[in-house]
Design brief:
By secondary structure, the protein is mostly helical. It is about 65% helix and about 5% strand. The chain is built from 24 helices and 5 strands. Helix 11 packs across helix 17. The chain is globular. The relative contact order is 0.11. It binds zinc ion (ZN). Zinc ion (ZN) binds next to helix 14 and helix 15.
Length: about 550
């Protein structure tokens, strides 16, 4: 078999009328089928149609991000964004017909019961009755992105946007970090009223959607939108308390040690991203060199990972170099008609190159491993489970980091582990804050700033804002895009992080067994909800009593705190 090349993946632009007609045919075929086999055939045809649309959706978005200056690619993306909710509506209609119909059991015996829960979440979180609010919501979320993207700073002889300014938070010179923090604070202060207004409207629109769909408030609707089927807000609250009680004290120790290592009297907010006076370790070579090292690394991790990396690399399913016109960020996307995923990144010579690469390879390997699942609804799990695959690979590749960092490999592992731990309290603070917000949708913007101050006192007690007045007034959360764009998503990074750290602990004890459990988990894709998947890999659910203790004990030992 010849190697599949990325260039060979094509997808025809679907026309709404044709797709709607296909749906009418599928519905008729399903209704008129004489038996279960006939209904299964209609579902199979539906699956094929959905795969085509999904491949087109991924391709259009990817091609735009590969060159944001290309007018044709932009036009294709606009068309996609216009059609997406219409296709979703058609899809939900079919899901409702099958999932709520008299033959739902046939689906259950073919694919397992979880797919019905997945459909239920999709159907329960959208209805044409909330179309106006949904459209207004995405416009407001875009206006947040536009506002933040419009920020421009003159600093250190450069003109910088918000994310470029952020690189100075890791600068070795404290005055440079402090100056960058002042600029950032001033921008958020100047734009605070507008950021407050956008969020206030978003919260009220989301509350209205929840009310129209019959929910008590936006929280249960937000959970449905995240596809959560096996835990609720009470479980999440207990987990946040465990992070507060078990992880926050460890983070306080890490911060104290960091303060001493940097030789400071007080660790200020603008010192937090620098973990030792040498600055953060960097990979020892450029893009091509890193790809070569990656090939050696994955070859050293078994046939599956080695072979998969060759498939990705030889077929040009990797776009890792930064270049003009290319969108920022890193992600993994997939083409369900073909089964081979794609990794997009922007290498910039920092340790982040290696982190984003191993992370996205984890997503890609999972997606590829579950390509033979019976339905595309299982190709990706819900996001907290998906982040387990990606974050775990960051840890499972630890022994190979000397390939990239040479004599700095130990320092890299320490910085990575510390960063993963200190992230947990921040992640749950973002989550707790949103629960407070959506429980009290009529709170004023000023009250929301107070809520965030309360979160910092609870979860980030070491944080010192000094003269950064907008930040000490509770404005820091306004820089966190997820809060505006994807409510309740953020905690998923922490839930997955806790699971990934368990893989790290397991691998320290028995590397081969940990790799086998990891590969099996990847093969399962999204065939089960989060906690089932986690437990099947021999991990403890983050919602179970005592889950954090083992991880924190091991981390304290390794870090010597
Ligand atoms: Zn990820």
């Amino acid at each position: 078999m010849t190697q599949l090349q990325f260039d060979a993946i094509r997808a025809e632009t679907p026309e709404y009328e044709q797709v709607a007609a296909r749906y009418r045919e599928l519905e008729a075929a399903y209704d008129q089928a004489p038996d279960a086999a006939g209904r299964a055939a209609a579902i199979k045809d539906w699956e094929a149609l959905r795969r085509e649309i999904a491949t087109w959706t991924s391709l259009v978005s990817l091609r735009f991000q590969q060159d944001t200056r290309d007018a044709d690619r932009k036009a294709a993306l606009d068309l996609r964004n216009e059609l997406a909710p219409k296709f979703e509506e058609l899809r939900n209609g079919f899901m409702r017909k099958i999932g709520k119909g008299p033959h739902a059991d046939e689906v259950k015996s073919a694919h397992g019961g979880h797919v019905l829960d997945v459909w239920d979440c999709a159907v329960a979180s959208y209805d044409p009755a909330i179309e106006a609010e949904s459209v207004a919501e995405s416009k407001l979320a875009s206006s947040y992105t536009e506002l933040v993207s419009s920020a421009s700073f003159e600093y250190q002889g450069e003109t910088l946007n918000m994310s470029q300014l952020a690189k100075f938070s890791q600068h070795g010179d404290r005055d440079v970090r402090h100056g960058a923090a002042k600029l950032r604070n001033a921008w958020f202060k100047e734009n605070g009223a507008e950021l407050d207004r956008i969020y206030d409207e978003l919260v009220k629109l989301r509350a209205t959607q929840a009310q129209k769909l019959g929910y008590e408030n936006f929280i249960p609707l937000g959970y449905k939108k995240m596809g959560r089927t096996d835990y609720d807000e009470k479980d999440v609250a207990r987990y946040r308390n465990a992070v507060r009680d078990v992880v926050v004290p460890l983070c306080t120790k890490i911060r104290e040690r960091q303060r001493d290592a940097l030789g400071l009297d007080t660790l200020m907010a603008w010192d937090e991203s620098v973990s030792d006076p040498q600055g953060n370790p960097k990979p020892k070579g450029d893009h091509d060199w890193m790809v070569e090292r990656a090939r050696e690394m994955f070859d050293g991790m078994g046939d599956e990972l080695g072979g998969f990396f060759r498939l990705m690399s030889d077929g040009k399913f990797l776009d890792l170099k930064s270049r003009e016109g290319k969108a920022g960020g890193g992600f993994c996307t997939s083409f369900p008609t073909h089964g081979v995923p794609f990794i997009f990144a922007n290498f910039n010579g920092t340790k982040g190159d290696v982190e984003v690469f191993t992370h996205e390879m984890g997503h890609a390997f999972q997606n590829y491993s579950s390509r033979n699942q019976s339905t595309m609804d299982y190709f990706w799990p819900t996001s907290e489970a998906a982040e387990v695959h990606s974050m775990s690979l960051e840890y499972l590749t630890y022994p190979h980091m000397d390939k990239f960092f040479g004599e700095d490999a130990d320092r890299f592992r320490k910085v990575h582990l510390e960063g993963s731990l200190t992230f947990l309290p921040y992640g749950v603070a973002v989550d707790h804050f949103q629960h407070l917000v959506y429980e009290n949708p009529s709170a004023t913007p000023a009250e929301r700033l107070e809520m965030w101050q309360e979160m910092e006192r609870t979860y980030l007690p070491h944080r010192q804002w000094g003269e950064m007045d907008r930040m000490s007034a509770g404005g820091f959360w306004q820089g966190q895009l997820h809060i505006y764009h994807v409510p309740f998503y953020y905690i998923d990074y922490t839930l997955a992080g806790v699971c990934a750290m368990q893989f790290w602990v397991k691998a320290e004890q028995d590397r081969a067994a940990a790799m086998e459990a990891y590969k099996t988990l990847c093969t399962r894709g999204g065939e089960a909800p989060f906690q089932d998947l986690v437990r099947s890999a021999g991990l403890i659910s983050p919602f179970d009593e005592g889950c954090l203790d083992g991880v924190v004990a091991q981390a304290s030992k390794v870090l010597g705190v």
